[in-house]
Specification:
Helix content: under 10%
Oligomer: single chain
Structural class: mainly beta
CATH architecture of the domain at 22-80: Beta Barrel
Number of strands: 8
Organism: Frigoriglobus tundricola
Order of helices and strands: HEEEEEEEE
CATH topology of the domain at 22-80: OB fold (Dihydrolipoamide Acetyltransferase, E2P)
CATH superfamily of the domain at 22-80: RNA polymerase II/Efflux pump adaptor protein, barrel-sandwich hybrid domain
Distance between the termini: 74 Å
Protein name: Large ribosomal subunit protein bL27
Family: Belongs to the bacterial ribosomal protein bL27 family.
InterPro entries: Ribosomal_bL27
Largest sheet: 4 strands, antiparallel
Pfam families: Ribosomal_L27
Length: about 90
C-alpha cells in the first residue's frame, strides 16, 4: 500500500505563456511613428524603407505612413504620408 499520494497532475502543470509574436500591422494599414509592425524571433521579416530593426528583432516604423511588403513578402516597408518626411532615411 502506497504511503504517498500520486503526483502526476502536479508535475505536469508548467507551461509558458504565449508571446503573441507576428504581424501587428498588415499591408495597406496606416501606422504612426514608432509603431511596431512585426514582433519576431530572429529575422523572418527584414526591414525595408522607413522601418528599423529593434534589439529584440521587432520591426517598427520611422514615419507616419502606410505599410506595404515587397513582392517576396519578406521585406517590410512604410510609404510615408508626408513626402517631406523622406529625409529621415
Amino acid at each position: 500500500m502506497a504511503h504517498k499520494k500520486g503526483q502526476g497532475s502536479v508535475r505536469n502543470g508548467r507551461d509558458s505563456a504565449p508571446k503573441r509574436r507576428g504581424l501587428k500591422a498588415y499591408g495597406g494599414q496606416s501606422v504612426t511613428t514608432g509603431s511596431i509592425i512585426v514582433t519576431q524571433c530572429g529575422t523572418k521579416f527584414s526591414p525595408g524603407r522607413f522601418v528599423r530593426l529593434a534589439k529584440n528583432s521587432s520591426i517598427f516604423a520611422l514615419v507616419d505612413g502606410k505599410v506595404y511588403f515587397d513582392q517576396s513578402g519578406k521585406r517590410v516597408n512604410v510609404e510615408p504620408f508626408d513626402k517631406a518626411a523622406t529625409k529621415v532615411c
